[in-house]
Here is the input.
Amino acid sequence: MSQAAARAYRALREDILTGTRSAGSRLREEQLAEEHGLSRTPVREAIRRLQADGLVRVVPNRGAEVVSLSAEDTEEIFGLRSLLEGYAARNAALRGQADVPRLRELCAGMERQLERLAGGDADGAHDEITRLNMEFHRAIHDAGGRRLLPELLSRVIEVPLVRRTFHQYTTAELQRSFIQHRELTEAIAAGDGDWAHAVMQSHVLAARATLLRPGHDEEETQ
Here is the structure.
């Protein structure tokens, strides 16, 4: 990938993952090239890379657009997450290479956001929880595998589904999630692979139940 294409890819990927470009929004090559001061060729290359990442799809007679996820897509993604992340958590515990103090710091950081929620800063708190949560999970992925496992998990998790997941959580659901983070950290610290695996699978499946709760607004979450 050329430097220009890599720059366009990073910018577009960030826009998609942060929700700047919402689900279903079209990606017009000419417009994007003008926005980023590039020719259409590197933009086209960036879009192909985003398509391979699962963030963009190309629709006949319409062109490229940011993916929208159905309930069936959500079921499949979280099923894969429960398998892969459970495996990563088990390995992280058994390999003993996780940065446990950092995991505990991330847990505390997420827990502090409950105060911001109580103070009415919901968007800021949810965005910070999302950022810290992604770092927490990535740290476990990196501790639980070499190159292949973290790359696979990145493709499964870093899709539009994840960006606004925490906006759907009630306060009680957030507290439950944070308790699971703490337990998962302690299982990894103890080197107990079975415990870490079980907690991670429960954690991921609880998140799936929240997203698939009746009345959930998919376009808002995506």
Observations:
- The mean pLDDT is 86.
- The chain is about 75% helix and 5% strand.
- The chain has two domains: 3-66, 71-221.
- The domain at 3-66 is CATH 1.10.10.10 (Arc Repressor Mutant, subunit A).
